[in-house]
Amino acid sequence: MIGMFTCTIQADAAQIGIGTEQKIVQNPIELERQAIEEERKKEIARQKKIAEEKRLAEAKRLEAERLQKEKEEAEKARLAELEAKRKAEAERKEEARVAAKKASSNQSVNATPVSTTTSKNVLTVESTAYSNDVVDNKTYSGRVLTATGHDVTDSIYYNGMRIIAVDPSVIPLGSKVHIQGVGDAIALDTGGRIKGHIVDLLVDSKQDAIQWGRRHIQVTLY
Questions:
Q1: For residue 36, how far is the Cα from the chain centroid?
Q2: Are 21 and 14 in contact (CB under 8 A)?
Q3: Whole-structure pTM over 0.70, yes or no?
Q4: In whole angstroms, what is the distance from residue 208 CA to residue 136 CA?
């Protein structure tokens, strides 16, 4: 009986791998648990990798947006600076042009005639222009009058004709003439700088006078 009991104990120990030289048999439940744990660790690692990749991609996107914004702002600043320089240059040129026109209009227009009489009734003269603006003229009770007393405060015409200032020794006051490129006009005014073959055309504004400038024209006396 003792021998049989001993054999039985040895057989049970061999089956579970305890105290023998045989290979230990793994518990299937433990193997499954270990496999699940290993898979869980792999999933955690995979999720961490995905999260890190997303973080890096987002950081890269934000950096690209920042650089693009800086580039756009720098370009806007450059264009604004160029536009400011362009406007400043245009203003400078306009001021220089106006100053040159003003200096030219302020020069004395007396002295030698610009041309001689081409025929008995046709003269080639130098032409300038002046306005009926009360700021630029001597007024009488707030009205602008010509040398002959005609009120030109509100109109640059007399009976449908344009009004000119002349040197009466060349074109007598009251003379009706035809001005090339303008039409019929009448000599109703004079001026301190209107000496010789000079005709000063009355216009609506100082700007119109500047635009007219100085030019040679033909005047036909009726």
A1: 70
A2: no
A3: no
A4: 13
53 shares a domain with 101:
yes
209 within some domain: yes
Per-residue pLDDT of the chain (222 residues; tens, 9 = 90+): 444 444 444 444 444 444 445 555 668 888 888 999 999 999 999 999 999 999 999 999 999 999 999 999 999 999 999 898 888 888 888 888 877 776 655 544 443 344 444 456 899 999 999 999 888 888 888 899 999 999 999 999 999 999 999 999 999 999 999 998 899 999 999 988 899 999 999 999 999 999 999 999 999 998
User: What's the token pair of residue 184?
Assistant: 């019929």
Residue-range definition of the domain harbouring residue 47: 27-106
